[in-house]
Amino acid sequence: MNLIERIAALEKALEDARATTVDEVEKFRVAMLGRNGAVTELFEAFRTVSSEEKRALGQRMNLLKQAAQARLDALRDIVTTDGPGSVRTVIDLSAPARLDPLGTQHPISIVMDRIVGVFTRIGYTVSQGPEVEDDHHNFGALNFPPDHPARDMQDTFFVEGKDRALRTHTSSVQVRVMENSKPPIRTVSPGRVYRNEAISARAHCMFHQVEGLYVDKGVSFADLKGTLDHFTKSLFGPDVTIRMRPSYFPFTEPSAEVDMSCSICGGAGCNICKHSGWVEIMGCGMVDPAVLSNCGIDPEVYSGFAFGMGVERIAQLIYRVPDLRMYWENDVRFLDLFTTAPMRG
Ligand code: DAH
Prior knowledge:
Blueprint: H1 3-16, H2 22-33, H3 38-47, H4 51-78, E1 79-80, E2 89-90, H5 107-120, E3 125-126, E4 132-134, H6 135-138, E5 158-159, E6 164-166, H7 171-180, E7 185-194, E8 206-216, H8 221-236, E9 242-249, E10 252-261, E11 278-287, H9 289-294, E12 303-310, H10 311-319, H11 332-335
Parallel strand pairs: 3-7
Antiparallel strand pairs: 1-2, 4-6, 5-6, 7-8, 8-12, 9-10, 10-11, 11-12
This protein binds 3,4-dihydroxyphenylalanine (DAH).
3,4-dihydroxyphenylalanine is lined by residues 169, 171, 211, 249, 252, 283-285, 306-308.
């Protein structure tokens, strides 16, 4: 082969060169640009040709060398390594994209948002209070006198002696709202509460509640019932009904417990409703006049109702989670069950 033929052959070889691994790229480099590589050798040969030929082919030789370098760079670009010595892969542009794993909302947050949403849509505000609460807001203003046996209803975690405690219910927030605003008041207060309970499948020392409060002129028990009926139907569908059973809470008079027709068996009887057809979902009542005056609201002018529900209980009826502890374990296999369509934009 004369020089021109050798140049042409190499030009073609460069064009055809392929590599899928780093080793193959290195082989290509050695074969072309290494000390004994084809391009290098061609330059050796070029040194010995006549000056006439040099003039004729010099530029093409230079282009060949540049092309060899460019080809080497291009091959390096398409080959990637996953670290020294590991399996080398080529970027496969047709492979499906690996999506970043998306987090999900915790089921308790999903349910709490839905509960709160039902009320905000009918004009309620959302209010919050501290989890470490003083005796006045958690008990005193809510009509639990010191040493009143009703305080035994709550197993309290006390903090720094006896005046501060982890709040045992979100009813403490209704006190704060009434103290700080004037009627009409319509508010829901979602949040964590704490009780000194042994942890089991059915009880936990921390859980969530949503408290509701409505104070205005002429608020009646019928308003309470209508509101709670609207709430349960909004969350569980138009077929559920509620019933109210007389009960006792120090801060409401009269007080009631609310049962909902079992959303799981439709009232026919199942494990969840203990074959009664009804499940208890919250406590409620008319705000005791003494509580209104404790909070600076004149009970001669205003009346109100309040209610409080456990979010885990409602979530259990929606998702049928069999063990309360699952909510706190952060097991990704559990949390992944609640993946909702990712929110975009
Ligand atoms: N605070 C009560 C509890 O934790 C629930 C409750 C009952 C709240 C009646 C209320 C109510 O506002 O009126 O068990």
